[in-house]
Specification:
Elements: E1 19-23, E2 30-36, H1 40-51, E3 56-62, E4 70-77, H2 83-114
Antiparallel strand pairs: 1-2, 2-4, 3-4
């Protein structure tokens, strides 16, 4: 089969750099980053975070081939920051966002385990007089 071994998709080889930077000679204040052993998941998150920064004029990524585990990220700035600084700042913000999401998830999950036996209801109604799913009239009944 043509597919590489699974571990080759995410384990860096000895001496392999995770990020390679190529300055763009045709476009001012632009650079292309080759990020190895990653795919669309990280590429799209980083692209979206970079685009949220006001110094960025363009940001896009592509995965040249599905069997090659890397993506190319191109960033062009307005000149107030370098593309490398923008990428570093965007990654820092993305890590903070994901850490915040993780903390919120763990907090909500801990509440779920301490609540006890509360019956599941998609409408959030519990107790006396609460309708169960599929009984009575709802907004779809004419």
């Amino acid at each position: 089969m043509n597919a590489p071994n699974r571990f080759e998709l995410f384990v860096l080889e000895d001496g392999e750099k995770p990020v390679e930077v190529t300055e763009d000679t045709k476009i001012p204040n632009a650079a292309t980053f080759k990020i190895v052993k990653q795919d669309h998941t990280l590429g799209n998150m980083v692209r979206a975070q970079v685009l949220s920064m006001p110094q960025v004029l363009f940001a896009g990524y592509k995965v040249p081939h599905p069997l090659h585990p890397y993506f190319l990220l191109k960033i062009q700035t307005d000149g107030t920051m370098t593309p490398q600084a923008v990428l570093e700042q965007a990654c820092t913000k993305l890590i903070a966002t994901i850490s915040s999401l993780e903390a919120k998830f763990k907090r909500e999950f801990s509440f779920k385990t301490t609540e006890g036996n509360v019956p599941e209801d998609p409408y959030g109604t519990t107790g006396v007089g609460a309708q169960s799913w599929g009984t009575g009239k709802d907004y779809l009944d004419f």
